TrEMBL record:
GO terms for molecular function: ubiquitin-protein transferase activity. It comes from Magallana gigas (Pacific oyster). This is Uncharacterized protein.
């Protein structure tokens, strides 16, 4: 349960799932992107509640390991574009 809370904070910058004006939960969008090499990592866009996942993972265990490393680091860069 703790990892779900951390994941939610990583994706939305909030510990809570919020409702939209229609009374539904805000959606979290997952996009599959082309990122490889040293730049390969899951990237969260908190304003739009979007997660970019690289398509270049060789296996689920490798993906899971890299995602958990990002979530456990608690050092998330906030870039403003």
């Amino acid at each position: 349960m703790q990892m779900l809370r951390i994941m939610l904070r990583y994706l939305t910058a909030s510990d809570l799932m919020l409702y939209n004006s229609e009374g539904n939960y805000h959606r979290i969008t997952v996009r599959i992107v082309d990122i490889d090499g040293i730049a390969r990592r899951p990237i969260a866009h908190t304003c739009g509640r979007t997660l970019d996942l690289p398509r270049t993972y060789e296996s689920y265990p490798i993906f899971k390991c890299e995602l958990n490393a990002v979530l456990r680091s608690y050092v998330w860069v906030m870039d403003f574009a």
